[in-house]
Every structure is written in C-alpha cells, then in structure tokens.
Amino acid sequence: MTGPDQAVLIYKKSQIPEVSKDRFDRIYYGSDTCDFLIPSKSDIDALQKIHTKLKIDYTIVTPYLTQQNFSLVEKLFKHLATISPCAEIVVNDWGVLNLITERYPQFCMIWGRILNRQRRSPFFADQENADVQLVEDIKGLTKDDRRYLKASILQNGYATQLLKSMNIKRIGLDNVKQGLLLGRDRDIKIDLYYPYCYIASSSHCLTRTLTMKPFLFQRVARCNRSCLKTKVKKVNIGGEEVCFVGNHQSYFNNKIKPKILQRIDRLIEVKL
Amino acid sequence: MKIMSFIPADCNLAPLIDRGITEYYFGHIPAFWQRKYSMINSINRRYQLEGQMGSMRNLKKLLAKDHGVRIKFFLALNNHLYTQDQIDQILLYFKDLFLGGLEGVICADIGLMGALKSRFSSLKIHASLGTPCLNSEAVRFFKKLGVARIVLDRSVAVKEAAIIRTENPDIELEVFSDQTGCPHTEAVCTHHHGSNIVCLEKVCRFTDPPVEIKSLLMDRFSRLHSLFKIGIDYVKIPRPPNKGMTSGEMLREHEKIFSFIQGLNKYNRYG
Predict the structure, then answer these.
(1) Torsion angles phi and psi, residue B124, rounded to 5
(2) Measured CA distances, A40 to A45, A77, A214, B113, B163 (Å)
(3) pLDDT digit string, tens, across residues B120-130
(4) Do B188 and A153 touch (CB under 8 A)?
(5) A76 to chain B nearest CA, in Å?
(6) Residue B145: left if φ>0, alpha if ψ -120 to 50, beta else—which one?
(7) Residues of A in Cβ contact (< 8 Å) with B162
C-alpha cells in the first residue's frame, strides 16, 4: 500500500525553486491567513513554469479576506482561469467559496483548514489569576470532552452535506496534539497539515508588532512584507513553544499516528 | 440603530425596556451538556456558569412573560463547531423554545444554521462573530443560507462596513459596542478563553510586558457614530465573560452607550 501524496505549503516565491528539488508531488502556494499574501500573477507564472518543466502540480491557497483586499483574489482568479482553468483552490473564506461557486465552477475547491473548525489551542486557563496550562495536562476531562476536542467539521453531517452539495471533495486538517477524528466518510479526502498547527490569526501583523515596537498592534492598510524577511519568532506560553509569523500563531507537532497516515490522502508539510 | 442586549442576571428587563431596548440574547447550558462536558467545552464560548441563564423553567417563564411591548429573545449557540449528535440533541432539547418564545438563534456553525433553518423555518438566524464574515461576498453566501443578520467582526473597518452595507441593503448588520484589547480576529481564533484576562495578557498579547492596545483603537463613540451614519442596524452590548450583571449594574456600566444611541436616533428623526 502506498502512503499519502507529499505536498508542501509555502508562501514565498523564493521558496519555489528550493522545494521543487525536494520529494514533493505538489506545491500548495499562498497563505491561509493573510490577505496581503495572495499569490500574484508572477507567482502563478513561476508555479506554472515548474509544473511544465518538472511536472510538479500546484494548488493555490487563499486566505480569509477583508473587504479591503477582496478584489485581489478576483484578479487572481481571472488570471488563473486563463492559464489553469481547472486549478485547485484552497478556500478559507465564505466569500471566496461563493465567488467560485457562482463564477468559477470549473475550479476544484478544497475546504481549507481555517474553515474546518478544529479545536486547536494547546493551552487553557480556567480561572482569573490562574496559570496557563496545557490542555493535555488538564485533570478531570471527560471522555466526551476529549472526543469533542478532536472533532472537526467532518463530525458534522449537516456541514459535510453542504460541502458535497458544492462539489467539495477534499478538506484540510491540522495535525493537532490532542488527536483527530477522521470519520468514516471516504467520499471526502483529507489533507493533513504538519508540523505547524494553526492557532489564531489577526488583522494586525504580528511580525511587524514584534520587530517594530512603536507600531504595535495597528491594523495595517499596506504591508511591507516583514514576514518574508524576518525569522520566525518563538515565544513560550504555558510550556508550549508558539511560533509567530506574519499575522498568525502556530505550534509545532510532528508526531503523526500510523493510523492517521493510512487514512489521509495528502500530507502537507508547512514551511514557515 | 437599535440595541441588542444580554439578559441581565436578575432578569429584570423593565428598566432596559424603559430605555427602548427590545431585543435580548442569552446563553443556557442544557442538562445533557453539563453531564457530558466540562467548561473547556462550553456550549457557547462562555466558560463560567455565571454568564449563563439558569434553569429552563425560569427561562420559559421569562420568555412567556408579558413585558408590555413585544420583546424579541435570541439564544446564543455560537460555538465554532458542533458535532452531528450534539446538533441533534440541541434541536430536541430546545424544540419548545424554537417553536415558540424565541425570535432566533445566534450561530457560528453552518451545520447548525442549516439544520435550524430546515426544521424551524420561522426562526431568525444570526451569523455570529464566530464565523468569518469580513466581506460582501461572504454576506451573500450567508444570505443564501437564509441568515437574517450578520454580526460584523470587530476588526472590520468603518470603510469596509460601509461597502458591505451598500452592497447588501437587504440584510441586518450588527456590530459590537466595544473593541477588545485582543489583536486576533475572533472568528478564526481557536484559543480557549477560559479566563479572558489570562488569555488576553499571557496568550493573545504575548509580549512582555503586555502592550497597551486600547490607546491605538478608534474612540468607540466616534466609531459608533460613523457606523450609525452608514446604516448599521444594531449594536450589541457584550455580555461580561466571567460574571453575571444585574440590570442596575448594566445601566451604570452602559449608560453612556444607551444615551448615545438614543441621541443618535433622535437626531436622525428630527435633525
């Protein structure tokens, strides 16, 4: 039996030549959280070139979108429809989903990991003045608690029906520490993102916040792409190392159970 | 512009009705949920029991009471995700309220939205802050699902809200009366907010010492005025996360907002 396809998630054009030399079958390109990082025409052209030359497929990742930047994704789709009419698009925004359903039904949609509604945060503080503790160390969680913490939209039949009605047959999940429930529905293929699990994201640029303190937590109207130039900042919170890059927080977990590996269709290595 | 308020802990609506507030929301943890889950798995993203309405009997009494004017009640079932069996149990447990007494439900889970709409078609569904709806096209998606009102994320700028309003005149839009000190977009934040203070200071505003964010936010009255001018329909008064609040305390805490909104409405009528 063969394992899952190997893919990689990147958002910097400079990473394309590097990852195309690796073992990956497919490149996921774009950000699922930042609408300043929507792939440009030249990014798509670079991916298309690699596809023609090395036969490496690509999938375009789109983030959840503010009104301010929504037109960028419309421009992207217009361009994409001319060079790759059946392109695979990861959707993390209801508006993008609506746009594709109405105007680009030929695109192949993937339900993104931001919309899968997984419970992700590895830490919890239940009382005022209490210390943050890791979810795995909380005493007194019931069996139902633990099961719920592993759930995603895959355990919600009403939502998966909606997915299928929109011809969505693939969903992205994060490799969360508490484990995953994958369900028995084999009609939906699973992308597993690892080793960085998304926790939260912001309309403020966290990289900018950490590097340019005078402008802390201001919503940015223009982006100077600090995340492309700055190293990932790691902060220890409640015993867990949390990574800050661009506008999102994530944590590291590279342990994948063999049972999970058997069930998933694509394993997506997230590069920060 | 109308006010959507939480039901105060003493359930005394009279002084609030006097201020013209006729829409109220509340949370309630069903017995079946309490038996199964601890507070990390709250049914409505409020992690302390003080923030919830107590017994079902009292709740039904309040909803059935004659308040002299028509009062609309909304139940918050705004977790990002419910599983299929949870939805089925929720539909069964709250059936009586869905069939009568409740005006609508505040939801973030599209599965729950769909299930409610298909079984209780007269219920009004509000897309909660817990579901990412930051652009006009997303509003159009929710309209197709039968959603009656969208609660806009606190991060939506006035300029953006104006475009959303202009492009979607046929749906109710609601905003929160406050802006939090949290930098995260709430709909896509998966932190467990057991204690808001701990979460804000140690997790969300991770710098040491935590950075003061409030001074950088737009003054809330200027913001509300701008949102009023562009035609936002409702302002929601946020329920305190970790404690109950009586109607008297509420009036003291939110008096300025109530008067401000009343003033805006008066100005609009006569000015």
Answers:
(1) -90, 130
(2) 9, 10, 30, 35, 24
(3) 999 999 999 99
(4) no
(5) 16
(6) alpha
(7) none
